Amino acid sequence: MTILKDILYKVALEAVVGDTGTAVNEIHFDSRKVGSKDVFVAIKGTKSNGHDFIDKAIAQGALVVVCEDMPAEQEKGVTYVQVLDTHKALAVMAANFYENPSANLKLVGVTGTNGKTTIASLLYQLFSKAGFKVGLLSTVEIKVGNETFDTTHTTPDSLVINSFLRKMNDAGVEYCFMEVSSHGIAQERTTALYFTGGIFTNLSHEHLDYHSSFAEYRDVKKRFFDELPASAFALVNIDDKNGPVMIQNTKAKKYTYGLKSYADYKAQILENEFSGLLLKINGQEVWTKLIGNFNAYNVLAIYAASELLGLTTIESLKHISALQAVSGRFQYFISEGKVTAIVDYAHTPDALQNVLETINSIRTRNEELITVVGCGGDRDKTKRPVMGNIASSLSTKVVFTSDNPRTEDPDKIVEEVEAGVEPQNFKKVMSVTNRKQAIKTACQLAQKNDIILIAGKGHENYQEINGERFDFDDLKIVTEYLKQLKK
Ligand SMILES: CC(=O)N[C@H]1[C@@H](OP(=O)(O)OP(=O)(O)OC[C@H]2O[C@@H](n3ccc(=O)[nH]c3=O)[C@H](O)[C@@H]2O)O[C@H](CO)[C@@H](O)[C@@H]1O[C@H](C)C(=O)N[C@@H](C)C(=O)N[C@H](CCC(=O)O)C(=O)O
Ligand SMILES: Nc1ncnc2c1ncn2[C@@H]1O[C@H](COP(=O)(O)OP(=O)(O)OP(=O)(O)O)[C@@H](O)[C@H]1O
Ligand SMILES: N[C@H](CCC[C@H](N)C(=O)O)C(=O)O
Ligand SMILES: [Mg+2]
């Protein structure tokens, strides 16, 4: 049991009706989860308004209601706390409830359109190799030291974040690397956390269904840096035109990294092959198994962050050369019949372009590059034709297919992707809505030395259709078909 007053510490209060000395059990923002003596936080969401469920929460045992609009009538024995912003209040209360666990470890947030999972996961690997106990909050998984937990979000809600940070404290974790998504910032999921550092990767077209404009999307990301404390570091990719924008108003110490512009941390690509990258970082050569130009940025960011966190140059370079690719990020194998199959999470126009350009810069021109790609349902529709255009311009053959259709008609999504194909590329493309059949088609088309790229779902081990998740694994499926077809 916790006393309400303690959980409300630093919450900006508008009005309180009732007793703040009440002892409470748990905090919930979903009425369906509320139990006896809990706190219910009413949130105005994208689909419904939590204020409509206040009565239900009280009926289920809520002793405290935190809200933006005070109900006209108040129940006896229930404490009502009115605040301006319940998202923010929830984050502060979550941090208090779990005793501010972020202050007891070094927490680094990674934000940007692409590269967050890669950088956060590789920093987790690097610091683990360096002998520290490390935590990770990422799209793929949550880690508390060596223990792994499933995750549903890139940046979970503030209760989940703080409960895992608490677990990390209890396990003696010293460093935690977490992805900070734009939804996470907009919904205040990372408010009230103490960050030791922030890293910016890049900004390109994504989530314009949720954010009303690119400028709003950019400003949400920038808010993460605006809110960093003076003691933290803010490390940005200076080759991205929004890198300088991110640190315009930050109080944190500013550092830059880049391949093209003058920067505090600079790298040069010496070799770029299927087997990896040879980089020169601040004058020192380092070999990494990671592939492609964009990974040169990721590796450089990792190097810079590890130095800012106190590792020596020699130590970080040594560990960088031993880093393993992150699940579903440019994961590839060569079949017995010499077909190269690559599975990559590229689900934005920029990521797809980068991956295809990387493959094109490495391959010799005689082989086919067969791309299997689609776009998710209930997400930004404007990226569909753009990705269709990129796939068909940069591949020699394309099989358009479904990603996660969610509640949309998959054939319709495929049509919207196809709409971006220019006439000169019509003959390169075909559409097979069933993703499994699409992968099979690509395998049938492939000959010795050809390359198959399966983009969009990376590590995901399901396909979501109409609210149901079916087992689905791009890597497994392509492996099986290539074997079956004896390729
Ligand atoms: C669009 C979006 O971001 N939605 C997130 C948001 O939900 P919401 O507030 O809009 O929910 P809502 O359905 O409108 O309900 C409003 C409130 O009423 C409450 N409610 C509702 C029904 C009821 O019976 N009782 C009740 O109390 C809900 O619990 C909620 O508090 O807050 C929820 C709690 O934190 C999230 O789980 C939910 O994520 C949904 C499932 C989602 O799909 N989010 C994706 C888009 C997302 O967040 N992605 C990002 C970025 C990924 C990337 O990097 O590309 C991520 O960080 O994962
Ligand atoms: N630095 C980068 N710049 C551009 N593209 C990248 C970069 N790093 C990775 N990518 C591409 O973007 C895809 C997604 O990478 P990653 O999962 O690291 O990004 P993310 O920011 O975590 O994405 P999400 O927002 O979905 O969690 C990769 O599979 C790769 O194709
Ligand atoms: N974090 C992203 C992942 C998209 C992955 C792609 N496979 C899709 O389903 O659209 C989102 O939820 O928008
Ligand atoms: Mg991610």
Automatic annotation (TrEMBL):
ATP binds at G112, T113, N114, G115, K116, T117, T118. The keyword Thylakoid does not apply. Carboxylation is probably crucial for Mg(2+) binding and, consequently, for the gamma-phosphate positioning of ATP. It is found in: Cytoplasm. It catalyses: UDP-N-acetyl-alpha-D-muramoyl-L-alanyl-D-glutamate + meso-2,6-diaminopimelate + ATP = UDP-N-acetyl-alpha-D-muramoyl-L-alanyl-gamma-D-glutamyl-meso-2,6-diaminopimelate + ADP + phosphate + H(+). GO terms for biological process: cell division; cell wall organization; peptidoglycan biosynthetic process; regulation of cell shape. Gene3D superfamilies: Mur ligase, C-terminal domain, Mur-like, catalytic domain, MurE/MurF, N-terminal domain. This is UDP-N-acetylmuramoyl-L-alanyl-D-glutamate--2,6-diaminopimelate ligase. It comes from Salinimicrobium marinum.
